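Can't attach files on this board, so I'm pasting raw text. These are the components:
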Amino acid sequence: MTTSDTNDPGSPRDAGNWATKVDRLAAPDDKSKVGYNITGKKVTGPQQGFGRLWQRTYSTNVGTVVGARALITDWKVNFGDYWPPGSVFHNSLTGIEPGAVAPIEVGIASHGPKLATGIVVIYADEESFTFMTPEGHMFAGMITFSAEEDAGETHVEIKILIRPNDPIWELAWPVARRKEDEFWMGTLTNLAAHYGVVDATVTEETVCVDHKRLWRNWRNVWHNSGIRSGIHILTTPIRMLRPQRSSG
Amino acid sequence: MSEPQVSMTVHFPETGTAVIEISGDVTAACEPVLMSAYEEACAPGTRFLILDFTGLTYMNSGGIGMLVTLLVRANRQQQKLAAVGLTDHYRQIFELTRLDEAIALHADAATALASA
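---
Top answer:
Structure tokens for the assembled complex are below.
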């Protein structure tokens, strides 16, 4: 086996940027109540999903008051604060760093129950970070958040490479796509507003990378976080009645 | 987007097989270089494509995304894809992203050819 051609042959330049591989994810102990659709799940990449493969790109210009690295540092720490109301990102105390697992609660409607799922941070450097999704998430794939400086201005981009995870999410794609537009465009608008850009213009581009559905993965429906969140909510009273297990 | 710090060369060790040797940094910025190499590798009859990462010095998540799109294109052409020359570090990244389930990993081109 060859080694990387770097100044330090034992340590590639990107070594600290990647998460370590784990077979099964575990929600952080202090977030186990909202991490029930993460613990025990595997990470899913675009080839583990079911539906068509989409590449979606959202971008905006946040002006001149912040550089790319400073913006990414802020975004890693306050990631959920820039989300539109209705959904919750449970960031870890250490913020977004490689290997971090974060439960998320997605608001389906403006009020009412939330769908529980999560993300795992697979990559983070000074100018970008990337999430992958666990089994059961609406989408199987990767989402990268990055910033870049050009002519003194800072441009921010969200690049998504995803397949709907199972046949149900594939059927829901037309609705999910619109929801995703609202969500990520809202996020970038909030981020730009934080840096003084009011009513920022957010552009969106969508390309279908693969029209083929991966029928071999139809069984992903077993992990569907929408169904599992519904069951979890309906069975809450039963869990409350169950006697607490003693720890001794 | 920054200039890609990568070079790719294509050769054909045997009929129906193409090897793309990748040297440098694999990021989203090198997509045009990779796709151009892929076009060159897609000579009539190419059924097996080997990506040789022996010269790989850096890869970010954009590079992984780019490999996914290459995989889709290869699948569309009913071509098998293999990766060789990965260090333990990069092999671990293929496993982390579960790309190893779609792209066969081998120690070197000879082993990949023997498995074809």
